[in-house]
Write a structure and sequence with these properties.
Elements (H helix, E strand, L loop, with lengths): L8 E5 L3 E10 L2 E11 L5 E2 L2 E2 L2 H15 L5 E6 L4 E9 L3 H6 L1 H5 L10 E10 L6 E10 H13 L3 E7 H12 L7 E7 L4 E7 L2 E8 L3 H12 L3 H9 L8 H28 L8 E5 L8 H9 L3 E3 L6 E2 L7 H7 L4 H7 L8
Parallel strand pairs: 1-6, 3-16, 6-10, 11-14, 14-15
Antiparallel strand pairs: 1-2, 2-3, 4-5, 7-9, 8-9, 11-12, 12-13
Length: about 350
């Protein structure tokens, strides 16, 4: 939400893992310096709320120490039911006038007590329908959620310089990595452990954003129930790293059902968006997040939506040294690092 020339450490605190990315601005672009992922127990973060702060802090600290990163300032992101993103049409006014009336205007669109939230706004531009109006994006989050995340970052020895929203971090990542994409309207869909974040861009600007409360954790829990194994074993079965003694026909059926459920929810959201548009269509869908690897998901979504679907490469336009980073691992991890990369590309001039 705030910009400066300072390099920030991208820190994506997810429900199942914490991702850390350090990217340097170099002549002609960006260069990856460090990348890391630390797994956390499933009960640490529930519905995006931090339940076990000590484990989260320790994981962030261990990532920082193992990667030997020097950058202290960090950017992290939030999403979920405590975060509201609303587009509104307001009379044309200056930025200073908007700030003066921000609380009054936002109260009409924010379903929380305005005193319990952090609030920001972005002027999207003049309204397409009326020349005397402008489109404004209101972003609000409950103070408790923001403060909990900022506290965890601070206790891990880093400086929380910027608090972003997952869908906007995806947007930043996309803008840097796909600057020459020919499509006018694209959907960025990030499928994580507990949430699916959707951001629809038109000519590089967000025009629709939504979070869906479902993710890969539900699939892991189903595998756990079906095969009577631990959560950790179920996660390994899901990723294909431990399938000894597992009925492949049975697990493939579970994957098929999971892909169908994902596609149904994503399609419902995209269809709702399309119902609000006149003579315009989504031209391409970019999938990211660890759950985009569910077998058959990308193919089924493409078939159901009749729109090209591409698994995103979060390092598509970022250079990295093959002597330092294993190419096979980078190819595998790239979709999962989308939010963290977007955060690492931000700059900040605000301190908590």
């Amino acid at each position: 939400m705030f910009f400066d020339k300072k390099t920030l450490l991208g820190l994506d605190i997810g429900s199942q893992s914490i991702k850390m990315v350090d990217i340097a601005k170099v002549r002609g672009g960006y260069e990856l310096k460090s990348i890391g992922l630390g797994l956390i127990p499933s009960e640490c973060i529930v519905d995006k709320d931090i339940m076990d702060s000590e484990t989260v802090v320790d994981t962030i600290r261990n990532l920082r120490d193992n990667l030997k990163v020097r950058t202290k300032g960090s950017a992290t992101a939030i999403s979920g039911h405590s975060v509201i993103v609303k587009k509104a049409e307001l009379p044309l006014m200056s930025e200073s006038e908007l700030q003066e009336t921000l609380l009054i205007e936002a109260e009409q669109y924010i379903p929380f007590d305005i005193n319990d939230v952090y609030l920001d706004s972005f002027v999207l531009g003049e309204s397409l329908e009326r020349s005397d109006m402008m489109d404004v994006l209101f972003v609000a989050s409950k103070r408790e959620l923001v403060d909990d995340y900022a506290s965890a970052v601070r206790n891990a020895g880093l400086k929380p310089m910027l608090m972003d929203i997952d869908v906007f971090a995806l947007e930043t990542m996309y803008e840097v990595n796909y600057p020459d994409a020919p499509e006018s309207i694209v959907a960025l869909v990030d499928a994580g452990a507990s949430m699916i974040n959707i951001n629809i861009l038109k000519d590089g600007m967000s025009i629709f954003a939504r979070d869906i409360s479902m993710g890969g954790r539900q699939l892991t829990e189903r595998i756990q129930r079906e095969f009577g194994v631990s959560y950790e074993r179920a996660e390994n079965i899901k990723t294909g790293s431990d399938i000894e003694g597992i009925d492949l026909e049975r697990i493939n059926y579970i994957f098929k059902m999971a892909a169908e459920t994902y596609v149904q929810e994503i399609r419902r959201t995209l269809d709702f968006f399309l119902s609000t548009m006149v003579n315009e269509n989504i031209e391409r869908i970019y999938m990211s997040g660890g759950s985009c690897r569910i077998p058959g998901l990308v193919t089924l979504l493409e078939k159901q939506m009749d729109i090209p679907v591409e698994t995103i490469n979060a390092f598509n336009n970022i250079t990295w040294d093959e002597k330092v980073f294993d190419p096979e691992y980078m190819s595998y991890i790239a979709p999962q690092m989308a939010v963290a990369v977007g955060l690492a590309l931000r700059r900040a001039d605000y301190k908590w």
